Amino acid sequence: MAVDFPTELRNLRQTLTSILEVSDVGALEKQVAELSEQASAPDLWDDPERAQQVTSRLSHVQAEIDRLKRMTSRVDDLEVLVEMAQEEDDADTLAEAESELAAVKKALGELEVRTLLSGEYDEREALITIRSEAGGVDAADFAEMLLRMYLRWAERHGYRTEVFDTSYAEEAGIKSATFKVAAPYAYGTLSVEQGTHRLVRISPFDNQGRRQTSFAGVEVLPVVAETDHIEIPENDIRVDVYRSSGPGGQSVNTTDSAVRLTHVPTGIVVTCQNERSQGRNRDSAMKVLRARLLDLQRQEQERKLAAFRKSQVSTGDRSAKIRTYNFPQGRVTDHRIGLTLYRLQDTMEGDLDELVDALFNAEQAERLAASGVAGATA
Fold first, then answer.
1. How many domains is the chain partitioned into structurally?
2. 199 plus 338 within the same structural domain
3. Does a structural domain hold residue 340?
4. pLDDT above 60 (res 250)
5. What CATH number is attached to the domain comprising 245?
6. Which of 32, 33, 69, 150 is deepest in the core (most CB within 10 A)?
7. What is d(CA 51, CA 70) in angstroms, rounded to the nearest whole number?
8. Does the pLDDT at position 251 exceed 50?
9. For the segment 267-320, what is each residue's pLDDT rounded down to a tens digit?
10. Helix, strand, or coil (residue 50)
């Protein structure tokens, strides 16, 4: 069947337009300008942790812009190639156009998946905890199998991982393990893995060779982004100066050197009167204020993460049985979308992309339908 180039190109253009609208290239370019200014500050590397955050974010946003521009160019070039092929009615050129059309459709689909990861935490790194559940030693062994599966998946993609804690079971396997996948959008990608996973197999730990069913739970959370850099707008601070009291030398009690800072949005009050200089007292008070605001920020992050964790656990679809790994039949089935793949061994070796992409596409189709964005994922 001949390819309907006009329809295919029109669909590609609509999808690209949707991606560009959601991505907001103008906002991304503004971010690049702001981050570039921060990255060029001469004292940036005085704080290595913040410097790493700024440069990593700058690299990531610039890469996103480059990706969008390259895809726009590919769609433009494809339209020109198709027009040329049709005008010349040349079989070789038409075949080239068909091949490039297929390649652009695939690349655009991948970009759409990445771009539409727009949840509040989607761009974060992922913190994953695996726990053995019902099933005794088979469940502990299954938990370790899942740990290996996810680590192999990350390795396939070149993502750095860090295992924070592993609690080993007595006979075999693990009771639990927690690890981080350090990659942009790791949480948005792996969040579909949260829930209860089920293993069906002939147990290697049963001397009668009976079929056993065991379970392991997977929890996926976004990594909390902490920073020691607290920006305090001048308009948010009320400054009062007054005469110091108490011992401290002649000039301490005779000049208005003491400083009281009030952070208007939070009501936090900091005073400093130990230094003879008003400027030094203000600097010291600002350090204390920043520390208190940082602590407040951390408390808020922990509160939000605790609420997020509770919502994830209480959500039926996420905490229910989501996937079965059936070894006797060599298949893996995701019960949320009814997808069955007959290549279980590849899955256990970390080949999760088909499962993850199918789940993600289903979620994004719902998001797009709800938001009314054109060019929803088919």
1. 3
2. yes
3. yes
4. no
5. 3.30.160.20
6. 150
7. 28
8. no
9. 988 877 766 778 878 887 787 787 678 768 767 766 766 666 566 554 433 346
10. helix
The domain in which residue 140 lies consists of 126-223+329-371
Instruction: Find the distance separating the first CA and the last CA of the chain, reported in whole Å.
Output: 21
The pair of three-digit structure tokens given for residue 74, joined into one six-digit string: 């590919």
Q: What is the CATH number of the domain that holds 135?
A: 3.30.70.1660
Per-residue pLDDT reduced to its tens digit, 321-365: 899 999 999 999 999 999 999 999 999 999 998 898 888 777 766
Q: Tell me if 108 is assigned to some domain.
A: yes
97: nearest Cα among 121, 120, 72, 78: 78
| pLDDT score of 370 more than 80 | no
- The answer to whether residue 167 is domain-embedded is yes
> Which amino acid belongs to residue 208?
Q
The per-residue pLDDT for 374 is: 42
Burial of 194 (0-12, 13-18, 19+ CB in 10 A): buried
Q: Give per-residue pLDDT as tens, 50-91.
A: 787 788 778 778 878 888 899 999 999 999 999 988 888 888
* SS3 of the chain: helix, strand, coil, percent, to 5: 55, 20, 25
Domain edge (last residue) among 261, 285, 302: 302
Kindly state the percentage of the chain with pLDDT values over 70.
81
> For the domain that residue 72 is a member of, what is the CATH number?
1.20.58.410
- Spatial distance between the Cα atoms of 61 and 56, rounded to a whole number of angstroms: 9
The residue out of 96, 115, 134 marking a domain boundary is: 115
Burial 246-261 (b: 16+ CB within 10 A, else e): eeeeeebeeeebbbbb
Co-location of 339 and 211 in the same domain: yes
Q: Residue 149: which of 358, 360, 339, 345 has the closest Cα?
A: 345
Largest CA distance in the chain: 97
3-state secondary structure of 315: coil
Whether 121 maps to a domain, the answer reads no
Q: Are 108 and 15 in contact (CB under 8 A)?
A: yes
